[in-house]
Amino acid sequence: MPWFRNFIQLSATFSKQSPSSSPRRAAAAIFVTRSPSLTQLLRHFSTHPQEKYPGLGPTKGDEKPRVVVLGSGWAGCRLIKDIDTKIYDVVCVSPRNHMVFTPLLASTCVGTLEFRSVAEPIGRIQPAISREPGSYFFLANCTGVDFQNHQVHCQTVTEGVETLDPWNFKVAYDKLVIASGAQASTFGIKGANEHATFLREVHHAQEIRRKLLLNLMLSDVPGITDEEKRRLLHCVVVGGGPTGVEFSGELSDFIQKDVHQRYAHVKDYIHVTLVEANEILSSFDDRLRKYAIKQLTKSGVRLVRGIVKDVQAEKIILSDDTEIPYGVLVWSTGVGPSAFVNSLEIPKAPGGRIGIDEWQRVPSVQDVFAIGDCSGFLENTGRPVLPALAQVAERQGKYLAKLLNHLGKAGGGRADAAKELDFGSPFVYRHLGSMATIGRYKALVDLRQSKEGKGLSLAGFVSWFIWRSAYLTRVVSWRNRFYVAINWLTTFVFGRDISRI
Ligand SMILES: Cc1cc2nc3c(=O)[nH]c(=O)nc-3n(C[C@H](O)[C@H](O)[C@H](O)COP(=O)(O)OP(=O)(O)OC[C@H]3O[C@@H](n4cnc5c(N)ncnc54)[C@H](O)[C@@H]3O)c2cc1C
């Protein structure tokens, strides 16, 4: 526990006793993080002259078997958290060193929550990654998998560091878990990738917040025309699923509570438009959907039914040629397979995700598993592809960690060693329900197992309270739970933070 270690170190610093006689010093020494020795490290990294790239070679008999996890999202992090590090060394390869608590990401765009409140560093999720000599986190993208030789090919992420070119390396695995998620779908709509902002990562939320605050400030400066002011302050959200609706709700709250008070000069110019091709919140109960439409409209969100056909730098064009100028454009129309998943030459599930069986295995290759948004049941399993949800990804990660721990204990941790072992019960998914906030202290809670099923569905303030309590308990660590609670309280008392840092 860091607080205990800090406490011990602090008391040791203030202690006047000699180091050898101080019991506090002795305790402090025990809690100081043990770094791997240089020889231990060198043993793991090989640069064979005949190999093009450096990397981690296959594990040796006296080392623990190695689980390589691609991705640090809901699925990968849950697996990393639960994997038994006495049995396995864990290597996580991901272009980000933290997990994002996505259900609360929309709240960071308008300053209800701070960015760090929704980001959990990998080293805190699984401390062995920063301590154990054979466990690592590599800031890199996996660029390919050599299934025959049990190796992944990676390229470092050096974005923003102009003096450093990215380099390639390889990591050998005993077990490989692909948890690389999905990517935002734009359905090939012209200009969407270039001009819209997606809402999937913390840096997207930062970009939206900066743009929103910049536009608010510029529209107050003399010399701007009324038409330009209206455009700059028009926030357009494309996609009426839970993410698009939650973001629109957060924005309208921000406008009503904060912009009206602190940007009073421009309050009549700022508007939110939500564009959806079909029904908004189509997976929710009809009654809840109608309630959401009523509440959003009351909050000033303009709902437009339409199909976007073209995205330009300052406007979107719908299929009926309606033009909608915008200052901030947020795109949230669902997800599809990433370029990395598309590049893997293995059988795919309907929709292009990595095909898996009931044990999360990729059946065509040995020792490879896939979990979360990047995976889907193969057609021959007779099971449907599960929705791209955190609750699916997290439970798949939990299930697979248990399965790998079981295999490791049964002597099947090494490459090709689990062929004859019993994999136990298959993964079973039971939907726990859906929730979405719609602003103004209101939310929807739909506890039905499926759209046709029966079950409790609620809307209003009580649902909002359930939504907040549920997510507060689901936030990964006590540290972030504390941050979230404090951010909510600060926003309630003092309003949102509107500084453009
Ligand atoms: C704004 C928002 C709100 C949401 N709200 C909810 C909600 O309320 N409830 C709910 O159930 N679901 C929600 N979701 C969906 C949920 O977040 C996803 O289903 C979930 O994140 C999927 O987890 P995952 O681990 O499969 O993928 P992700 O969480 O997307 O993680 C994928 C990881 O793989 C990494 N990666 C990508 N490519 C590579 C590569 N080539 N090599 C190595 N690593 C790679 C990524 O950097 C990332 O770390 C929301 C999603 C968003 C965006």
Automatic annotation (TrEMBL):
It comes from the Eukaryota. The keyword Transit peptide applies. Keywords: FAD, Flavoprotein, Membrane, Mitochondrion, Mitochondrion inner membrane, NAD, NADP, Oxidoreductase, Peroxisome, Transit peptide. Residues 431-497 form the External alternative NADH-ubiquinone oxidoreductase-like C-terminal domain. Its EC number is 1.6.5.9. Belongs to the NADH dehydrogenase family. The gene is LOC105171018. It catalyses: a ubiquinone + NADH + H(+) = a ubiquinol + NAD(+); a quinone + NADH + H(+) = a quinol + NAD(+). Residues 66-397 form the FAD/NAD(P)-binding domain. It is found in: Mitochondrion inner membrane; Peroxisome. Alternative NADH-ubiquinone oxidoreductase which catalyzes the oxidation of mitochondrial NADH does not translocate protons across the inner mitochondrial membrane. GO terms for molecular function: NADH dehydrogenase (quinone) (non-electrogenic) activity. It is a peripheral membrane protein. One of its GO terms (cellular component) is mitochondrial inner membrane. Its cofactor is FAD. Signal peptide: none annotated. This is Internal alternative NAD(P)H-ubiquinone oxidoreductase A1, mitochondrial. The lineage of its organism: Eukaryota, Viridiplantae, Streptophyta, Embryophyta, Tracheophyta.
